[in-house]
Every structure is written in structure tokens, then in C-alpha cells.
What we know:
Oligomer: single chain
Strand content: 15-25%
Strand order of the largest sheet: 3-2-1-4-5-6-7
Number of helices: 7
CATH superfamily: NAD(P)-binding Rossmann-like Domain
Number of strands: 7
Structural class: alpha/beta
CATH class: Alpha Beta
Number of domains: 1
Amino acid sequence: MNIFITGANRGLGYEILVEALQRGHHIYAALRNEEAVSQLTTLITQQSMEASRITILLCDVTKEDDIAKTALQLKRNNVVLHSIVNSAAILVGRETAIVDLDIDDVINSFDVNLFGPMRIVKHLLQLLAQSESSIINISSEAGSITNAYAGDYPYSLSKCALNLFSEQLKRWLHAHDTVVWSIHPGWMRTDMGGPSAPLSPQQSAQGIVNIIERKVAIDSSFAFINYKGEAMSL
Length: 234
């Protein structure tokens, strides 16, 4: 498979890259700037990864021109994608009361966490394979209305909107062999999740790649599931 991953230089995006690479897939790693490119390049060397199966693309999800150029580059190279993984995300304004909230944090969170995946799908959908393809949006239980909690407004609101976007895509593509999932990856030990999290990002990545490879029987009425393929409460 050819798997396109945003935010592939760190956190869960990087772990999905590693897991998919170990399973023999080719990775198209979309990175936001030269610093991220340098970071991933260093990791590839340090971990002795098979660099020939990793294509690094300079592509900031907040810049539509970047994404359009990336899509054109892939199209010119006759690349067919089998999965698009929208992993790039930010977590800002955490545990901030509404009276103290910086609205710019909300705007920036939507720009990356929602509009980023929308831009990516808008331009790369044309490159998806006609059969057994997938769009994977990395979401969060924080985006559940049923289990809403006070605080984390920028992140939670943007992830809730991402879940709805995933559901809209799922219904639009229902006649095609393209599945759309909005995945809660679990509370992981990453920079975002912190050291106290019970789950390793490697475990989450394994589950997500299993879903991409359609090794998991998923029984869910909606697009919102966890990394094991279990239905999540909207």
C-alpha cells in the first residue's frame, strides 16, 4: 500500500509510519517545515529505516497551496494512494476557563485539526485507489458530545467537528470501496498525552494500521471508533 501521513515526524504520526513501514508499505510523509523534515530524516538514519520506501513531502496542512502542489506532484508521478492518514494536530489552551480563553487558540486549532484534514482530502481524494482505500482522521474521545467535559475548548471543539466531517465523508463515499474512520487513538504516552498515559503510541499505531489493512471487523453505525475498531459514543 501507499500510505499518506500528515505529521509523520513525531508522536502518533511517526509511530504509524514505523508500523506501516515494518509491514512493507510505502509511506508518503507530509511535513510542515524544514525542521520537521530534518527531524524525520535524522530518525530514519538513526533507526536504520528503509529510506527508499519513505517519500518526504514538504506540505503544511494550513497552507492550501502547499497541498495543491503536493497533489500535483504525486499525480505527475502516477502515485495511487491506498490510505490518507490525517494525524497532524495541535493541543493549545488546555484547561483554560472560558473567561480566560484566547480565541486565537480556537481559530488555530480549527485551522490545523479540522481545516487541515479538509484541505488534504479536498486535493488528494482524486489520488485514492478505487478499491480497498481508506481515509483515517485521528480524532479523540475529547470530541464526544456524550462525554463532554469542561475545558480544552479549542481541542475538543475541533475534534468534535472532525468527527462530523468524517461522518459526512463516510456517507458521501458510501457507494465506493473507500472507508472513512475518525479514530480515537487512546490516551498515549506522547508529548500531547504526557508520561502518565497508560497506552504506548506503538500499541495504538498497530491497531490503526490493522484498520487500514482491513484486518479488523468493525461494527459501528458511525465513523467514530477507537484504535481497536470499537464504536465510540458521539
